[in-house]
Each structure stands twice: as structure tokens, then as C-alpha cells.
């Protein structure tokens, strides 16, 4: 490859983090993400093969990417995920390789994923109440998530982070219970503000629970202080419990955007690069790879795409337009 310069944009940001969606399919139907029925999945032939994903990842690693996160959809529903993990892990010793999952398949897969070289696991869980879980996820599978978390811990993943989305009318009162549970269990809970990326377009500002409110609820019982020395490009703002019993985070994409430090790009399961969750433009690397592009040509296309990375999302502007793809088809 000729141009192995880091992937830099017009704002001086450098891409270090590649999110790879391995499938748009999911085994839950969370109300803030998908409709109950009628999702149209990507045709199988459109999905990048594991070889194509690994090739693309290798080019990215040559261009300075240091971390890869597998996501979806639900990444564990794609067949033989540990095979991909092994392929990616072989690309670079010590690669920061992680997954975001709903945890349902971790009982069966945690050990294989660890053995294949996965380093870190984030599990999504929005409530501690099994009935509410059923309402939110539209599947009665709460206990499988808890068992999946335990399996991840048993095989040695640490730290384990838990992502929660709070919505008014569903689980807005769960900031404190989830934080307390995270402290007790040793999980780092991070609350994600609901973003306008749902397929049904039901998002509204009134229904999201802002980070400030979440932190106030938690701090009323467990005093918090900002965690020092955290990575500014990480989406979560972290707070340490003053009694030293762990940390809690907020990903305040709507009320406190952190685009100025964003170092991420996303590869969709069908091989499109998105330089922002809210991009209205995608760059087609599937056709480039299948059309015979060399590594150098892939790198040149990537440089050109990243150069045009959006300075920031427009959620808080009157010009905001929700992208056509929902979160599960982008890779959250
Ligand atoms: N299926 C996996 C999971 O559940 O973690 C990975 C994909 S999921 C899209 C990744 C994360 O995005 C989950 O924590 C989920 O709760 C969150 N999420 C989905 N839709 C969202 C939205 N519109 N706003 C904020 N977070 C969202």
C-alpha cells in the first residue's frame, strides 16, 4: 500500500475505532429500535463475508485503527462469529477487539469468543424487571441476559460494561436500580440517551431521559465525581462513586454531543462505510472490494471518505434529517 497515513478529517480528528456490523438481524425487538414485526433484512448475498470483513479491517489497521468493535443487529446471531473473531485477532497482536451484544447467546458462546481472542464485552440491558424486559424487548428473555452476563464473567471478561437506554413511560425510574445493581455486581453501567435512529420514527425529545436527570437520580444516593484521565474520544462520560465502588457512565449523544472528539467509523453488514451514526451518505466498499480494488485503492477511498467526516450530528438543529437506516442496520 502506498498511502499509509492515518485517517484524518477536516477537523483534525483521527480515526482509531472501527465498528463492524456483522448482521442487521436481531433476536429482540426493542421498542426504541425496531417495530414489533415487518423488518426487512438485508439479502444474504449483500452481507460481507468474513474474508471481506477481515480484509477491510486489515487495511484499516494499516491506516492507524487500533480498536475494533463487533456489533449489529445482534452480532451473535451470525453463524460462526468466533471464526471472525479469530481472523481479526490474528491481524494484529494485542488488538483491542470487543463486542456489543444483548447477551442472549453468551452462555453458549462466551468461552469460544474468549478463546478466539475477544478482549471485551458490552451487554445491553435496560431494566432489572423481567416483565418490563418483556415489554421493552418484546421477548420474554430477561433471565438469559443475566445468565449471559454471568457466563461472560465466568470465562474472565473484565471489565464488563452494561448499556442501558431509558425511555419515559417504560423504564425512566431505573437509573438508580441499575446503578445500584452495577455496583453490587461489579458491572460498569452506562446510560445511553435515546437517539433518533429508530425504524419507526417514534423518537421525540420528550421521551428521552437526559443524562443530567439520570446522574442526579444516581448521585442523590451514591455521590459521584468525574473520573479523571479518561479517553476523550470515548463516547461515555464516566463518573466514579465517591466511596470507591466502581464507576457509572452516560453516553449523552443528544444533550451533550461529543462529536468534536469522535474517532469512529462504521462498516455496515453490507459493506457501506458511515463516518457518523447520522450520516446521510455512505461509501460502498463492498462493490469496491468485489470489483477488484487493490488494498491501496481501498485505502485511498477510505482517506477520501474520512476526510469528509461530518463535523457533528445535527440532532439539535432544525436541519436534522433522520438517516434511512435505523440503529440496528447501522451498527450501534
Ligand atoms: N444487539 C446488540 C445489543 O443489544 O447490544 C448490538 C446492537 S444495538 C443497536 C447496540 C446498542 O444500541 C444497544 O445498547 C442498544 O440498546 C442501543 N440502541 C439501539 N437503538 C438505539 C437508539 N435509537 N438510541 C440509543 N441507543 C440505541
**Helix-strand makeup class:** alpha/beta
Number of strands: 12
Strand order of the largest sheet: 7-8-9-6-5-4-3-2-1-10-11-12
Subunit organisation of the chains: single chain
CA-CA gap between termini:
30 Å
Strand content: 15-25%
Uncertain regions spanning at least 5 consecutive residues: none
Give a short account of the largest sheet.
12 strands, mixed
Q: Rounded to an integer, what's the Rg over CA atoms?
A: 19 Å
- CA-based shape: globular
| SSE pattern | EHEHEHEHHEHEHEEEEEEHHH
The number of helices is: 10
Which small-molecule ligands are present, each listed once?
Answer: S-adenosylmethionine
Q: Could you provide a short overview of the structure?
A:
The chain has 332 residues and is of the alpha/beta class.
Protein architecture, described:
There is one protein chain. Helices cover 30% and strands 16% of the residues. It has ten helices and twelve strands. Strands 7-8-9-6-5-4-3-2-1-10-11-12 form a twelve-stranded mixed β-sheet. β1, α1 and β2 (67-71) form a beta-alpha-beta unit. The radius of gyration is 19 Å and the shape is globular. S-adenosylmethionine binds next to β3, β5 and α10.
Task: List the defining traits of the structure above.
binds S-adenosylmethionine, alpha/beta, 10 helices, 332 residues
Secondary structure layout plus pairing:
Layout: E1 17-21, H1 50-62, E2 67-71, H2 81-89, E3 96-101, H3 106-116, E4 120-124, H4 130-137, H5 142-154, E5 160-165, H6 175-185, E6 188-192, H7 211-221, E7 224-226, E8 237-241, E9 247-251, E10 264-267, E11 272-274, E12 283-284, H8 285-290, H9 295-307, H10 327-330
Bound molecules: S-adenosylmethionine (SAM).
Amino acid at each position: 500500500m502506498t498511502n499509509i497515513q492515518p485517517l484524518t478529517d477536516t477537523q483534525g480528528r483521527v480515526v482509531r475505532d472501527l465498528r463492524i456490523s456483522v448482521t442487521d438481524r436481531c433476536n429482540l425487538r426493542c421498542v426504541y429500535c425496531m417495530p414489533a414485526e415487518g423488518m426487512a433484512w438485508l439479502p444474504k448475498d449483500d452481507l460481507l463475508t468474513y474474508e471481506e470483513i477481515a480484509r477491510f479491517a486489515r487495511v484499516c489497521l494499516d491506516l492507524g485503527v487500533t480498536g475494533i468493535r463487533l456489533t449489529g443487529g445482534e452480532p451473535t446471531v451470525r453463524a460462526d462469529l468466533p471464526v471472525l473473531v479469530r481472523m481479526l485477532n490474528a491481524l494484529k497482536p494485542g488488538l483491542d477487539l470487543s463486542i456489543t451484544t444483548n447477551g442472549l447467546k453468551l452462555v453458549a458462546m462466551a468461552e469460544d469468543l474468549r478463546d478466539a481472542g475477544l478482549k471485551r464485552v458490552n451487554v445491553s440491558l435496560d431494566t432489572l424487571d423481567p416483565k418490563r424486559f418483556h415489554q421493552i424487548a418484546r421477548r420474554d428473555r430477561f433471565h438469559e441476559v443475566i445468565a449471559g452476563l454471568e457466563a461472560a464473567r465466568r470465562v474472565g471478561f473484565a471489565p464488563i460494561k452494561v448499556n442501558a437506554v431509558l425511555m419515559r413511560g417504560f423504564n425512566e425510574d431505573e437509573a438508580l436500580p441499575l446503578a445500584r445493581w452495577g455496583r453490587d455486581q461489579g458491572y460498569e453501567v452506562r446510560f445511553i440517551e435515546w437517539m433518533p435512529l429508530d425504524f419507526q420514527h417514534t423518537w421525540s425529545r420528550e421521551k428521552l431521559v437526559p443524562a443530567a436527570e439520570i446522574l442526579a437520580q444516581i448521585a442523590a444516593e451514591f455521590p459521584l465525581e468525574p473520573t479523571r484521565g479518561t479517553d476523550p474520544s470515548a463516547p461515555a462520560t464516566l463518573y466514579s462513586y465517591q466511596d470507591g465502588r466502581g464507576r457509572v457512565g452516560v453516553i449523552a449523544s443528544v444533550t451533550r454531543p461529543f462529536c468534536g472528539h469522535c474517532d469512529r467509523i462504521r462498516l455496515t453488514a453490507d459493506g457501506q462505510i458511515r463516518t457518523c451514526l447520522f450520516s446521510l451518505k455512505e461509501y460502498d466498499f463492498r462493490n469496491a472490494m468485489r470489483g477488484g480494488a487493490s488494498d491501496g485503492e481501498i485505502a485511498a477511498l477510505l482517506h477520501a471518505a474520512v476526510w469528509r467526516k461530518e463535523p457533528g450530528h445535527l440532532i439539535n438543529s432544525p436541519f436534522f434529517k433522520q438517516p434511512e437506516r435505523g440503529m440496528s442496520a447501522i451498527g450501534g
